[in-house]
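Bumping with the actual sequence this time:
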Amino acid sequence: MDINCGNSSYEDNRTAEAKFRDASIILGILLSGVGVWVIIYALWEHLGRPVPVSYMVQAVDLLGIAMCLTAWRFTSFSVKELGLFPENPKKVAIETLILCGISFVILATIKFVGQMYDPTLFQTERGFFDIRRFNLYQIFYLFTAFIQEFTARSIMQTNLRRVCATRHKTMYAIVHASVVFAVFHIEYGFWFMIGAAFLGGLLGVVYEKQKTVLGVWIIHWFLGVAAFLFGIINQ
């Protein structure tokens, strides 16, 4: 009898059991998180939106932290799989700066074309790009963007890819993480959710390419701040 073969089979079974266990836990976390947030949103609407959207953003951040801590405590992914430490920081930094530049041009084009159609669209207090809108909230948004991306990429997308048994597991993970990401923006309305899902898909692809959450975190923050300074979003 080949002892090594027996050991290998045992290890394979242990790995399969661990992945199945992780899959069950992640599914439970995702379903519970989405369910809790939909209930909170429904209550917010039922009460006539008693608090501003910014409070809802803080609430979903707290929910994201709770989901991250739960996944960290009860699943078996390693620190390396969290994507906090890029293998090639310089390459990630260059790619992130390029993508931020492209994003800025796209946002400027959206505003320019939108105002050609309707001059009152995307108005700011001062000019085409109102840098004076930048405030402490935009700095705090660094934390918000990190929590959202860490939850969507390091926790959801990474674990969905690890436990998925389908052929196209990476695409499966990106799509499902993006849909959940969109649901957590329900307080902004339908079209914002569609935009969040689309952005989530693009950031999911970047995350898979860079293998780190740092790049998508900065892109997410930059897009949110730039869109606010352009007046494309006003919350």
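The tokens above came from a reply further down the thread. The radius of gyration is 20 Å.
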